[in-house]
Amino acid sequence: MWLSQAGVLPHPEPSVRSNTTWLLVRNVFHLGTGQVVSTVLGILLTAVLGRALEPAQFGILYIVSAISAFAFVIVDWGQGTYLVREMARGRIDEPELIGSALLIRLATVVFSSALAVAIALTLRYSGQIVMLTLLAMMAVVPPTLIAPFVYFLRGKDRMDIDALANTVGKAMTLAATVIALHFGGGLTEVILMQGVGGVAALLVGAVAALRLDIAVKAPVTETLRELIRHGAPIVAFSLVIASQPFVETILLSAFAGPAVVGWYGASRTILGIVTSPAMIAIAATFPELSRASLSLPNFRRMIDATGRILFIVAAFASSGLYLFADHMVAIIYGHGRFEQTASILRVSAIFIPLLFFVFLLASAMSAVGRNKAMAVISIFRVAICVVLSWLLIDYWQQRFGNGAIALVIIAGVAEIPATIACLAWLPRGAVGSTTTLNVVRAYIASLCTIVPLSMLQPLGLLYLIPLFSLLFAITAMVTRLVLPSDLRLAMEVARSRVLAPGR
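Structure (tokenized):
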């Protein structure tokens, strides 16, 4: 469908490109604002849990989360990608799509709950973990019901409502968890309070759907078949992706014990916070990326534009995480129990630009419907990780006392063949030299920030933070990771023109 290759489609007018840029910035603004609030709430929740739970308890919670997250992939059945893409392109049967999606989700949540419990029993985990796993699956039912409406809103570029529902859910989860722990609650109550947050998000989403007159019609057999058929390769790909942290957690718990799983889980929580801007950018740009995928020149421009945002964030996140890992762990989890988590984070920081590049390529592959190819790539990637983890975790644990670091190195190295395969499978010319060059620039900017500031660590945060901000800004501009046009756009956003009517 690359009509522009034959000269049928003209290049978009400057006004079209301008409107597209403003649309992307507006989406990022809404999701980013919501994510900032959600991140603060998430940090507070993590701090509360880190101080209330021992590393071994935190490890149990992470094991339960890994099992439930793996099983929950089946519930979504690829709707997070397929529905957003179809809504963005415009469908006349949107009400039937939503109704059919809801029916599929309700049916699969029962199956997934049974699967999660069966996994915990098969792996011979304790009765406590089995019970907590079932409870965790029940806690995801409320957000399961609101998800099709959220995907509809994303497809229509209404990221503001998505952000609002997410923020309310996180705030309610935090408040309920604090109250439960104050009155002596434990892991059971912590998981129950996640369900309370899910109910709050569901109510916000339901009210928004009513006010926007989002129609829902009874499921249609043809639409059900469509969602099942097109969702199958996506869910296969998602299951493969979800299997990696799932298998990693199983191997780590077997070779290193719950405390090391707790260190690893704590590092994944902080890494999730650090990498969340990338997920915001991916979610905000995916509808437009799906529309642009019908024209190769437009598709390439969208990948370049999204990549520029991602790699600026990647360089900042990589250098910041490496330099301030110890401080982050101490602030969130306190002193004396999670020091090994900082070592895991510093190793993770090395691979962040490459990881963000894979995020970008995976989004582009989904936009053009190369989900089967992504599933194949992911299977080989996970296979590499599992085999190497089986061989190296125990060795690393015995030699260095922290087998989780082996997981991070293995996962980072496995991104290299995954990147090469994605580039080979995407349409020729979709990823330009600008995008690949920006990956290199991100690494250079990060390295040039880390090296001098590593020697100034004794100065303390009061001096390091402004020095870090200044040095990163200079290196980003010198390497041309940040262009003058980016600064002008940022100034316009700061003046709130992005939200002006008519944009």
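Residues 22 and 293 are 19 Å apart (CA to CA). The first helix runs from residue 14 to 52.
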